[in-house]
C-alpha cells in the first residue's frame, strides 16, 4: 500500500478546516431564516413595528423572513411561520373577531414587507453553499480522483453562495435603513420601526465566512488536479 501523497494530506487538512468552518456558516445562515418563527428566536428579526389594535395594545410586531412575532402588550408572545399563509387566515386563527379588520391590515402590511421588500437571497445562497459542501466532501474523500466537472461545480456553487450571501446581507441592511429613514420623516416624535441589528450582524458573519469557505473550496478542488497534471508530465 502506497503512502498518501503530500497533496492528499494537504487536501485532507484543508477539508477538515472547511468542515469546521461549515458549522458556524450553517448556524449563522439558519438563525436569520428562522427569525420570528418561534418564541425561541423572537429576538432575531428584520424589523420591529409598533402594534396597537383592539386585540393587542402596546405590542411589538417583529418581522422575520418567514415568520412574525407579537411581543409584549401584557399577553404571551405569539410567533408563527407565514410561509403560504394569508393575512386573513392568520387573523382568523390567532386574533379575536372584534377588531379583526385592523389585525388583517396590519398583518398584510407585514407580509408585504416580507414578500416584496425583504427578499431572502440568503435562502438560495444557503442551498448553493450546502450543495458545494457535499461536492467538496466528495472531492476530499475521492483523494484526487474526482472528475474536473465535480471540481468545477464545487467551486462555482461555493462562489455563487458567497455572492448571494453578501448580496443578501447588503440588500437587507439597505432595506432596513430605508424603512428607518422613512419612519424618521413620517412618524414624528414617536418611532414606528426598530431595526433588527442582531439579524443583520448574523447575516454579515455568514457572508464573510461563506467567502472564506469559497476560497478554501477553490484551493481544495484545485490541489489534486495540479498534482495529477504534474504526475502526468513526469510520466510523459
Descriptive overview:
The structure is a single chain. The chain is an alpha+beta fold and 236 residues long. It has one domain. Helices cover 65% and strands 11% of the residues. The protein is built from six helices and five strands, in the order αββββααααβα. The chain has a five-stranded antiparallel β-sheet with strand order 4-3-2-1-5. A hairpin with a 7-residue loop joins β1 and β2. α2 crosses α3. It is elongated, with a radius of gyration of 23 Å. The relative contact order is 0.16. The N terminus and C terminus are likely disordered.
Précis, in short:
With about 240 residues, the protein is of the alpha+beta class.
Low-confidence segments, ≥5 residues, pLDDT <50? 1-7, 226-236
Radius of gyration: 23 Å
> Could you say which overall geometry the principal axes of the C-alpha atoms support?
elongated
Main sheet: strands, sense, barrel = 5 strands, antiparallel
Q: Percent of residues in beta strands?
A: 5-15%
**Number of discrete domains:** 1
Please trace the helix and strand order, writing H or E for each element.
HEEEEHHHHEH
Q: What is the structural class?
A: alpha+beta
Instruction: Give the proportion of residues in helices.
Output: 55-70%
Distance between the termini: 24 Å
Keywords: Membrane, Transmembrane, Transmembrane helix
Transmembrane segments: 12-33, 118-141, 153-172, 192-217
Pfam families: SUR7 (PF06687)
Protein name: Putative Ca2+ regulator and membrane fusion protein 2
